[in-house]
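lol ok so funny story. i was supposed to be doing the assay writeup but got distracted and ended up predicting the structure for this chain instead. priorities right. anyway since i did it might as well share w the group, maybe its usefull for someone
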Amino acid sequence: MKKTISLFFLSLIATLSFAQIPNPSFEDIKNITETNAAYWYSTGKVEQSTDANSGTYAIKQYGGTSQFGNIISLTVGTSAFSNQVPYEGRPTHLEFYIKGNLTAGDSLFLISNLTSNGNTYGVASLDLTSLSNNYFKVKTPITIIDSSNICDSITLGFYFQASDSSYFILDDVKYTNNNVEEGQIVNGDFETWVSTQYRKIEGWSTSNDIGKAFGFTFNAVKDTSDASDGLRAIYMQNISFFGQVIPGAIVTGINNIDQGPAFPVSSRYKYFNGHYKYKPSTNDTFSVDVIMFYQGNEIGTGKYRSTATVNKYQKFSCEIIYDSVLSVIPDSANIIISAGSLDAAVAGSKAWVDQLSFEAVGIDNIIRNEKNVSIYPNPTKDYIYINFESNTNEYIYIQLYNLEGKLLKNIYQGKTLNNYTQISSNTSEIPSGMYIVSIKSGSNIYHQKIQVIHE
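and the output, tada:
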């Protein structure tokens, strides 16, 4: 989670809008059934495949973005942190059958560590740079470190960094000695599959999803019928896990671990609102953060913090502070809500959240009327004239923007010579449409919308 959020201020007049936040009242909750290969842990998109080298099933792994960047793993064991799984033998090679498609820049590699009584027995690794449409056998040697003992446990992982169009299908993974299977990898032929169910909040990721990505089951976030309105709300609780506190938290987007742009917006919102209840543990804080983006860059943030116990639903409101003095309209946003401090959550804190909304403004609401500024003609065709009163030797900036906030032209930059200044600008090469003239002098800012019409 981000620990600091910059604060700047721009006052806007607001109207209410609910349209763009995904699942804002948390009514869209689905029961999801997943089928996974028994005794294997995976991230990313993995599915059971009937395109097997032998037997009935194999495992198919797709490229694309997973929970943690583009690294997608398929690991024998129950979690990403499975250090060892039982195995007994003296293998000399690792063998498997594989097929699929890799494109330029893709990476598929395996790593295996074999141990005996806690010491390294041997290691194996291999990078695959190309695959075939047909199964082929891969046999990679194990570098034996200590052949005097029998291997008693292993780690084995396949790691895939690839584009959306790439995939591989894997089957019949085993260790061998003189071409004979040595010991046995549990479910190395991928014939055994298990189904699990979980509740999915549409449009959001949760602390549970992060745990699931590592093969752990968290119950830090649930849906509840204890709602401020409608049928459902979200319940979050900070939990203790192996000595660490896992905040009960939700974030917009699917697998949006880096808190980047998560959903589209089209207005320069002033406030982000919601309803909540809170029962904190000692010194904990209910936390809400909203981040606004334009073309992938952060342009505005808002936060709400409260340490108070709230037994009945009440409204919270985050003022969104933009770091742009001009009217750049965000194109996307992200929302993060947590039952505890993002820096130091305390186990046991509980929060209920419901009815999220933005308060939004359009571009028409931010134009200021100043008696000492005039811009004419408006509409215009070839030229505009900008007249304004100012102090002599006052430094000014005059710029032209489109309604999306993109700078089109620096009209003037420099000091004024008199108390009354007139600047002209050619608009003949600008396409017909609506634009904003911005005048900045010291801490004073003036915006006016103009229309350019070419016959």
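The two ends are 53 Å apart (CA to CA). Helices lie at 207-213.
back to the writeup now i swear
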